[in-house]
Amino acid sequence: MLVVGPSRLVALVLAALSMAACGGGSSAAGSGAAGSGAAVTSASAPGGSSAAAGDPNTDKLAQVLARGTLVLSTDLEYPPQSMAVAGATRTPGTKCADTELTTAEVAGYDADTGKAVAERLGVEPCFSPQQWPEIIAGGWGDHWDISWGSGAITEDRMTRLYVTQPSYSTPAGVFVSQDAPFQHLAELSGTTLGACTGCTMEQYLRGTLVLPGAVTARAFDEPTIKTYENEIPGLQAVADGKIDGFLCSEPVGVGEIDKGLNLRMLPEPAYQSYKTGYVDRESGLASAAFVAAVNEAVDSLHADGTLAGLSEKYFGKDYAAAAAEFDLSSIGQTVE
Question: Between β-strands 245-249 and 192-196, what pairing exists: parallel, antiparallel or unpaired?
Answer without folding.
Answer: parallel
